[in-house]
């Protein structure tokens, strides 16, 4: 019996996939199809596969061509599979010519002519394209612009910046304007990264004008305003999402999952530090707005938002009102504690430590853009290190989630609305001077 194996993503199953599977089957007597897992795809740069693994497996099964379907989960699995299933022929489309020659040591390798004129990427791009406008100032604007190039189904239509000089960084076939209304009239969605004091007004205006909003956290500096914006988004059938890129990092999501599954026992303490010294770019976000949302994220995602008490200590810059150079917040929960340290004028080790009754999770600096963490135990031999690829600091995955939410008309945000609310409430307390001045 000749056994054949082939691998693919099979997103939005199309004629090209069908033809490939037919010819693969014809090469032998028994066909095994490896369907790539979502994480594996992410790691090799296919970030906006639209269908779930289950849906993609179902499409392959429905052809009736596969005698067996397996899931491809890791680099190097092909060799393992070929040995395990005693494969005679490995085959893929001609877009991969040469790439799998190394497998000839184990079996025959056949490249089948790729069907012209059809691909999952094309089908994904033909779906409604979302035109995105970028609003605000600073390097994040450039980062989002660059990252948007990796996301199917999205085109940047224009940039609105208060900083005329910054507009010069972008292609002039875009709408480059200082007029927010002009931008709103020409886009379907916006990403806001203006000064936090402008977020609420800009988000509100966009939502009133039928434009979806992804807004750098904090979306609003008052809880009431935040609730009003989410209500408005709902009423107008629009997506409003809080932007904290760390929420979309694979490593961060894995550590949340492991902590919640009890890997380190009960979580007793979450300690997050995020600091950066002013880079002279005129960036005027204070510590609590610049870093607070990111540092608060693991606290609220792990311990929830029902804390009993919080205590804010801030060091203010003399000359400016409520501009904190450094803030430390301590939270008390019924069975746990947490602390965040954020600074724009004080530097510290940017690590995240989650302490539990059986062990702890350690994420080295800068934990908010990590691809790596460790779980450590009393017995060092049980320690484990985890690596996950992080592309574009999480921004591109965040954009994919935003575009997908717009397409499906249902929020796919990784940040629960209660967490966004609590972040705004912390900002509000700080702005109402509910802190101890150091
Ligand atoms: N394939 C093919 N002809 C096409 C598209 C795909 O023969 N027009 C083959 C690929 O070479 C591969 C298999 O089908 O062996 C699965 O491909 P996959 O990467 O899932 O599909 P694509 O349409 O190429 O996806 P994308 O556009 O996301 O790269």
UniProtKB/TrEMBL annotation:
Keywords: Nucleotidyltransferase, Transferase. Residues 132-241 form the Gfo/Idh/MocA-like oxidoreductase N-terminal domain. InterPro entries: Cyt_trans-like (IPR004821), Gfo/Idh/MocA-like_OxRdtase_N (IPR000683), Gfo/Idh/MocA_Oxidoreductases (IPR051450), NAD(P)-bd_dom_sf (IPR036291), Rossmann-like_a/b/a_fold (IPR014729). Residues 5-125 form the Cytidyltransferase-like domain. GO terms for molecular function: glycerol-3-phosphate cytidylyltransferase activity; nucleotide binding. Its EC number is 2.7.7.39. This is Glycerol-3-phosphate cytidyltransferase, TagD. The lineage of its organism: Archaea, Methanobacteriati, Methanobacteriota, Methanomada group, Methanobacteria.
